[in-house]
Specification:
CATH class of the largest domain: Alpha Beta
Order of helices and strands: HEHEHEHEEEHHEHEHEEHHEHH
Strand content: 15-25%
Largest sheet: 9 strands, mixed
Structural class: alpha/beta
Number of domains: 2
Number of helices: 12
CATH superfamily of the largest domain: Periplasmic binding protein-like II
Distance between the termini: 70 Å
Length: 347
Amino acid sequence: MRLLARVTLLVLLTSACTGDSRTPLVIYSPHGRDLLTLLERRFERLHPDVDVRWLDMGSQEVYDRLRSERANAQADVWFGGPATIFARGAHDSLLEPFRPTWAGAIGPHGRGPGDRYFAAYETPAVIVYAEQAVKPEEAPRDWDDLLDPRWKGKVLIRDPLASGTMRAVWGMIIERGLKHTGDTAAGFQWLRRLDAQTKEYVLNGPLLDQKIVRQEGLVTIWDLPDILLNRRDGLQLGYVFPKSGTPVIEDAIGVVRGARHRAQADAFVEYVGSVEAQLLATREAYRLPARLDLPLDSLPPWAREVRRVMKVADVDWDVLAERGAEWMRYWDENVRGKGEGRERAGP
């Protein structure tokens, strides 16, 4: 009994010492540790009564989780992912209206209907290659170059079903064919040919980067901020802006419907789009700001260079928001693993 009493007292003392009276702010985000930790620390410094807690997962996973929790919201803020997925979230009543003071500095297409979400960053998708194995002049220069026979079995792709970035690229390819032919068949045929080149659909972004560095594959498609962060950390990854144009994702943020800590959620959204936080994310985490009112000379050299050399693809994001989920289901059922020239097991 004496031992039990001592253990109980120890547990109570430990709980008292480690207790945290701050208000928890729960954020679901695909943005990764670098950016999330950076903003967590800065926001908590400004709001010492708030404890920021984030869960890092793919864009589609965030959407699916918020849908499953719609009757009992566990998150306060949805931070990151293409505006096309946020549009679905708004349609499914997953977001609360909130208009931050910086809303007017965002382009018209970066503002969700009913003030349900706003673009925080612009995220380009680029062609990536293993620098140790592929010379810059030999790397693919455009999307169609990925279909060259020399890359057969050397392409790795982040699983598109869980990735907002890859859904945007797939949507661009399908919508491009739709514009040219009036039908989606051309886009799906292109993806079928890429599937025949693809060695593996990889579970997540960090694993994708590591596999390219280990030369398990030589080329891939991924988002620019992640590649720049990995290059900063020493990973030998090269990248190319496709010469015909790259999809630039409007990376959004919004307050979750039924957020338990609404005031803190509003404050976090307000902070993310502030001039201070936009420049912080640009300088420390390679994020292109969505605000249009930032002077060009306030941006770091890498961001100015991206603005100079990047050609933005002409993408009808409204069509992707409306039909993207349907296209991905069709791709998963009829294209994945069934590309032209793939060896098939059994009859």
